[in-house]
Design goal:
4-stranded mixed sheet, 8% strand, homodimer
Chain lengths: 235, 235
C-alpha cells in the first residue's frame, strides 16, 4: 500500500498550512495510515494536473487519484474500513458534512481576514504576486487593508464561533466523547492559522482552546510539533 | 400517556411561532406523538413557573416536566425509544448539537434582524411593550431601525446560510436521506419567520427552498397548514 498526499507549502517548505490538507493529515493519523507528503507551492500546482483539477490536497493510492478533502476523507473511510471510523453511522456522515461546510464557508474566510498578510509574509517569494493578486481580487481591497484593524475585527470573529464554543461546552468534541472527522474539519482551519501566523485567534479563556489543545496533543502531538512559519509580531 | 406542550402564541393565539417550540412540534410528529398544546403570550409565562424557569417550550409528560428544546428532544428520544430516532448513533447526537447551536446562535439573531417589526405587529397588544423594550435593549436600537434596510441586509443573511445551502446541494436533508432532529432544529427558525412575517427570507432559486418545502409538506403538511399571522406587506 502506497499513499501519497500532495499538499500546499509555505515559504518554509516544511510548513503545511492548507486547512484542507490538515483535515486529511488528521484523517490519515486517525486511521493510523502513513503517506508520503509532497509539498507544493502555488506556482507548482501544475504538478497535480494529472488529477484533472488544480487544488490540493490530492491523494494517490495505488492506481487511484482522489481530489477534494471531503472526497478523500470518504475514500479513506471506505478503503480502510477496518480502521477507526471517521464518520460512523450514515446520519453521522451527513451531519459531519454540515460541520465541514460551516468550517469552509464561514470559518475559513473569517480566519483569512485576520491572517492573510501573515500568509503573504510566510509564503514563498515566487508565490507572492499570485497570492496578492488573487486575494486582493477576492476581498476587493489590499491585503494590508484586510487585516489593518484585526485587533478589533477579531472580536467579531470570536463571536462568530458561538456554535463551536457552545457545543464544546457540553461535550469534549464535536463528534462526542472522541474526535472524528467533524472535529478535524474545523481543526484544520486552526492549524492553517497556527502554522502561518502568530496572530492569536482565541481568547485564553475560550473553551475552544481546550479542544484545540487536545487535538494539538493527539497522535503524539503530531500537530503541535509540526513545523511552523516564523511568527509575525513575535520573536 | 398525556403529553402537554406549553408554547408561545402570537396575537392570533393559534399562531405558534417560537422556533424552539417548532423544533418540538416537529420532533413530536416525527415520533408520531400527539400533545395538548397550551398557547401562552409573553405576559402569561407565569403559567410555566412550575417548571422552575420562564421559557417555552415546556413539556409535561405524566409526572415529568422538561424545559429547553434540546432537553425535550432528548427526553422524547429516550422515553419513546421504540419510535423513529431523532438522533441515531451517539456521534450523530453530538453532531446534531452543533447544528442546533448554529441555528440558535447564528441563524436566529439574523432572522430576528429581518422580521422583528413583523413580530411586533403580530404579537398581542399586551405583549408589545415588553417585546419592544426587551428587543430594543438587545439590539441597541429601535425595532424600526433594526429592519429599516432589510431589503439590503437580507443579502448578507442569505450569504450566511452557505453551510446549510452547500450541505443541501449534496443531500436532501442535513441528516442525510431522511430528516431528523438536526433538520428540525434549523427548520424551526424558518417556521418562526413564516408564521409571524410575510418577509421572504430566501431567493426563489435557493436550494434551501426545496428542503423547506419538503418539511412544510411532511407529516401531512402539518407545518404548511399551520395558522399564520396576517402577512405584513401582502394582502
Amino acid at each position: 500500500m502506497t499513499l501519497t498526499l500532495y499538499e500546499l507549502a509555505a515559504k518554509n517548505i516544511q510548513v503545511s498550512f492548507s486547512p484542507y490538507c490538515w483535515k486529511i493529515r488528521m484523517a490519515l493519523a486517525h486511521k493510523n495510515l502513513t503517506a508520503d507528503f509532497v509539498p507544493l507551492r502555488f506556482n507548482e500546482l501544475d504538478t497535480i494536473n494529472f488529477s484533472g483539477q488544480s487544488k490540493v490536497p490530492v491523494l494517490v493510492h495505488n492506481e487511484n487519484t482522489v481530489s477534494d478533502s471531503w472526497a478523500i476523507a470518504n475514500y479513506l473511510e471506505h478503503t480502510f474500513s477496518d480502521s477507526a471510523p471517521l464518520f460512523g453511522a450514515s446520519s453521522t456522515l451527513a451531519l459531519s458534512k454540515f460541520v465541514n461546510h460551516w468550517a469552509d464557508t464561514i470559518l475559513a474566510p473569517a480566519i483569512a481576514g485576520l491572517v492573510v498578510t501573515d500568509i503573504y509574509a510566510n509564503i514563498a517569494q515566487c508565490d507572492r504576486e499570485y497570492f496578492r493578486e488573487s486575494r486582493e481580487k477576492r476581498f476587493g481591497k489590499t491585503l494590508e487593508a484586510i487585516t489593518q484593524h484585526r485587533d478589533v475585527t477579531v472580536h467579531e470573529f470570536r463571536k462568530s464561533l458561538a456554535p463551536l464554543r457552545t457545543t464544546l461546552q457540553s461535550q469534549p468534541f464535536l463528534s462526542g466523547n472522541a474526535p472524528a472527522y467533524a472535529d478535524y474539519s474545523v481543526f484544520g482551519h486552526f492549524m492553517w492559522a497556527r502554522n502561518i501566523s502568530g496572530f492569536e485567534l482565541l481568547d485564553k479563556d475560550d473553551s475552544i482552546c481546550q479542544w484545540r489543545d487536545t487535538l494539538l496533543d493527539a497522535f503524539e502531538a503530531m500537530a503541535r510539533n509540526a513545523p511552523r512559519s516564523p511568527i509575525i509580531g513575535e520573536s
